[in-house]
Amino acid sequence: MADAKVIPFDDDRSRARRRPARTEEPSDAGTGTAAVRALPGAREVPGAREVPDGTAGAHGAPEASGAPEAAAGREGGGVASGRADWERRLAGGLAFLRRRVTGEYEVDEFGYDAELTDQVLMSLLRPLYEKYFRVEVKGVENIPDKGGALIVANHSGTLPLDGLMMQVAVHDRHPAGRHLRLLAADLVFVLPVVNELARKAGHTLACAEDAERLLRAGEVVGVMPEGFKGIGKPFSERYKLQRFGRGGFVSTALRAGVPIVPCSIVGAEEIYPMIGNAKTLARLLGLPYVPVTPTFPWLGPLGMLPLPTKWTIQFGEPIPTDSYPPEAAEDPMLMFNLTDQVREQIQHTLYKLLVQRRSVFF
């Protein structure tokens, strides 16, 4: 398999290919640059003849001969349209596979593969997002249509599904169809398979240098400052935010001059109610924790199935940072105040969403 072409992160082509245009006609599969997913539009029914109401025949009766022809035309057109749809899908799929085999696709210097993310990874996550967790999204318009932005969210759920659902929410619900680049912990990039998929999906190491480069390049970056303290907290402490560290995300936003968008996620806390932690086993495996839930490990692999809770993701009002001078990033008091402001906004919204929801599952 040929190697993919690595393009500079700030190259215009990387941004141009992030959201392939959807066209009415199938693209040439041989070019290697066409969008894979082209949805067919409404087509005229071949052979159908419209008979206006009130049109009379030779004997003064409405002419009826056109009605069966129109019905037949509609039926034939529907079959033809369905066949053409499948042909386009097949051609697009084959073109996608050819580009994968020949290496005629592009990744940025972080390993982000926009085509694979759009066409495959998002498609795999979407049923979980739409059907299983039935995610409701609010305030997505608070994310800028262009330019960099830092989304700061609470973290929970034992497994980091909340970050993936937030990524789908931004990708599918934002009017500009923006992509969320998540900052992930070191553990993600040492796990086999997970490492490669995370890179392809646009995730990168949670360090200030990478985050600042992404933000300056106009990307939407997501961070969950609670880290393992949030995702691995016991069920008795659900929806209580843990420490946000030293405010490093605020410093990064100040240096890049981008707004901070607080994000509150309700529903993830209950997917794996963590009632215990096998600390000895966790130390042996080199993991931050090994959860014990009402279903795991008692039910074996079946216990790893998350509970189908109802989720709400709300993006709050952005907090601007471009009005601060460059040296503000070195002011510890300012960073503390902004960190506390973001944390309080997320916590307040969590409580408000919890009061509003009818049930954990509906």
Architecture blueprint of SSEs:
Blueprint (H helix, E strand, L loop, with lengths): L4 E3 L4 H5 L49 H37 L3 E3 L5 H19 L3 E3 L10 E5 L7 H13 L6 E5 L9 H7 L3 E2 L2 H9 L3 E4 L3 H5 L16 H9 L3 E7 L9 E2 L1 H7 L5 E2 L19 E4 L16 H25 L6
Parallel strand pairs: 1-2, 3-11, 4-7, 4-8, 5-6, 5-7
Antiparallel strand pairs: 8-11, 9-10
In short:
This protein has 362 residues and is of the alpha/beta class. Helices cover 38% and strands 11% of the residues.
Model description:
- The protein is an alpha/beta fold and 362 residues long.
- The protein is built from ten helices and eleven strands.
- Strand 5, helix 5 and strand 6 form a beta-alpha-beta unit.
- The longest helix is centred in the first third of the chain and has 37 residues.
Keywords:
single chain; 362 residues; 11 strands
- What best-fitting shape do the alpha-carbon axes yield? globular
Largest sheet: 7 strands, mixed
Structural class: alpha/beta
The strand order across the widest sheet is 3-11-8-4-7-5-6
Helix percentage range: 25-40%
| Mean pLDDT figure | 82
Span between termini: 47 Å
The total of helices stands at 10
Secondary structure tally: strands = 11
Which regions contain 5 or more consecutive residues with pLDDT less than 50? 12-68
- Which percent range describes the beta-strand content? 5-15%
Helix and strand element order: EHHEHEEHEHEHEHHEEHEEH
Rg over CA atoms, rounded to whole Å, is 25 Å
Oligomer: single chain
